[in-house]
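PROTOCOL LOG
Step 1. Enter all chains and additional molecules of the complex.
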Amino acid sequence: MLRLSDVVTHYGSLRALKGVSLEVHQGEIVCLLGGNASGKSTTMKTILGMVHPSAGRVEFEGERIDHLPTEEVVRRGISLVPEARRIFGRMTVWENLLMGSLVRRGAPAADVAQDLERAYALFPRLRERAQQLGGTLSGGEQQMLAIARALMARPRLLLMDEPSMGLAPALVDQVFDIIQTINGQGTTILVVEQNAAVALGIARRGYVLQNGRIVIHDTAETLLRADHIRRAYLGEN
Amino acid sequence: MDVLRILPQQLVFGLALGTVYGLIALGYTMVYGILFMINFAHGDVFMIGSYLGWGVLAALINAHVGLHPGWVVPLLLLVAMTGSGLLGAGLERFAYRPLYARGATRLGPLISAVGASIFLQNAVMLTQGARMKVYMTNLLFPRTWRVQVAGVNISVLVVVMMGVALLMMLGLHLLVQRTTLGRSIRAVAEDREMAAIMGVNVRRIIAITFFLGSALGGAAGVLVGLYYTQIDFFMGYSAGLKAFTAAVLGGIGNIRGAMLGGLVLGIVESLAVTFVNPAFKDVIAFLILILTLVFRPTGLLGESLPDWEKV
Amino acid sequence: MASPAARRLAITLGVAAAVLVAPLVAPSDYVVGVLTRICLYATLALGLNIVVGFAGLLDLGYVAFFGIGSYLYAFLASPQFGVHAPFLVALPIIIAVTALSGILIGAPTLRLRGDYLAIVTLGFGEITYLLLINLDRPPLNITGGPNGIIAIDAPAFAGFVLSRNSHYYYMFLVTLLLVLVASARLRDSRIGWAWQAIREDELAARAMGINTTVAKLQAFAIGAAFAGIGGCFLASWQRSVFPDNFLFTESVNILAMVILGGMGSLVGVLLGATLLVALPEIFRDFQVYRMLVFGLLLMVLMIFRPHGFLTPRSRRPEEPVAQGALEEEAEAPLASRPS
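Step 2. Run joint prediction.
Step 3. Record the structure below.
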């Protein structure tokens, strides 16, 4: 479904990605692991068209998307749950969700209402807070809102950038449970994470990124069990 | 005492003036909210709106058509708003976008705006002449046409002025708060990158914002033309600075703040002129601006920003 | 042929010679007048260059100091108050007072971001103009109102009273050279480095221990002082001052000289001043289009050459690499860009 081939991305004169290749197949959960400054965020940005690669290709469902503007990429069915949530604090929960369905501009109102219902079903807390400003929600609630918002677009591929960041362990488990549920409902997911253990717990395959290069690619099971790999490439985790 | 007798009159006038300031201020605040840029040429967009209205009115008068404010005023507004809106969008596209798109220093767009302002003023001066133009308002609103409002005798024109201004502000408020377009605008103003990730066409939203803000300025131009009857190519400069003061006073980037700031400024200025030499009326506006920026830079309604965002 | 250094020396000597004999070989007194104006505006531009070019503070109300200096000389050397101070007594007073006014006007702007600073200084410029044009009401006619002050004394040095344009030319030229040298020294001094650091990234400058408050006030004070000198010279040359000498467009005019020449570059500023004084004279017939072209020029300059025509390639900042749909934009104000 998604394929990166030898992607090289620069920030100014700095080479952040030095030839990254990865694949995500339909229905999977794939995780992309790595420490700080390994290039995880850059990979996300490249996929989304926020930065354009200087070399290599990004293909989604057979079509090249690497030089499209972000609005276009998103319209093709890729949604992002960004790092640090980044919900619109000055809008209500309901308005945030509506923003999520913006890409489905032509959709009938009934569909949007249905999507809203689904979001509230998945995250009952959001229904309670529907008219509250996003900025007043707790960290965990904001994370749920961010996920729900991304789902409003009915994406075929969901990108998640460090969903566990800044959350208490209990909440992290909750969030990853939800990720599995979403996947079960048919959404393909690419998760970028520093917390390797919990990400590998739900993924089918994992890539490890270090210094802008993929250094390991294997099934999640194998990665989970290989202690030395975890310690060598994933730092504290 | 004389002063007490004219006070209610002055207050009403101050309110009317204030709503107009508010309309112009909205243009500044909307652009600032979305681009963090002061559109120095906005005052001149207002001026051109005024000229457009004058042109249409003069043409109508020459055509010896039966004039009634009921349809003439909306027509003037429509023409002025469309013209000003397009001008503002044009400025954004050709004079500003190349600059902020390049991540140029913040001064770049401002200096370009100063250049645009000078260019527009002189373009109008050269094509329309340096002498002022006159709105034949009395053909639409005879001077005798007055009403009693809350015990004060005011001209219908003032009522219409306020009514139109308030209606437009309400319209803008509803647009921004209740429509998808409005949500997109708010999203871009809050977090541009995230808005793009949501699929918002950021460039288009910016252009629309400029259009809307400038259109409101154009409408204000017509209203000012009708009330003061005399317009000249330089009027955008001082009106612009005052409206900017109003926007800052209310909290720049904040739509309700612009409206509030306009009202406050209108009233303060109008009262001050009663008690102080009218020649210094402009000084008052500048003083308010400076005092606001020094002592309460986020304005009356502005949110408390984190330190590194403070104005 | 000769080495680049030798060539530069030759050019400098050539220019110096030309500049020195100019009034003697000029075709008319009118031309001498233009040359004199160039020297005057070059001095002003160098002053603004310190504020805008070195320290990065966009002062849109610079004309205020110009006006203050002018009117001060008018107060000190005309029938207005019956004071007729000698030039060399008036000048230091003017420098001191304008420097002080620079500090007073700069002080409220210290915490403000670039564009707000611009608007506030603009406001001060306007207030100054309004004061100049209105402070003539009874009982105290201070500024002469719209009619200004006339019959100002000509400068006299040891009995020699300046009368011809060429006299003024040499006086302005000498001053310009002094100001030029002073600017160069300042630029290379510790305070010059402080200014540059502030211009690039104020937060980082503060983190480095630079007292940005003092540095900024110094920039305002020195810039204002140069403008005060210019003002004093204008008053003594024109032998009169009017409020309309000090409109906002004049601030923009001087700013354009600084921008055109490349903010910070001394030679560039001189060239900018020369161009912007000489060209309108050459195109006198198109006088009426002057401001129109001017406005267009500012827009075009910003789009195509934001760092002036004359900044050497090495000093132009790197063009940011195309980043895709979302252009990097520094939204944070005074603060440094979030990394």
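Step 4. Note key features.
The domain at 2-309 of chain B is CATH 1.10.3470 (ABC transporter involved in vitamin B12 uptake, BtuC).
Strands of chain B lie at 133-134, 146-149, 152-155, 230-231.
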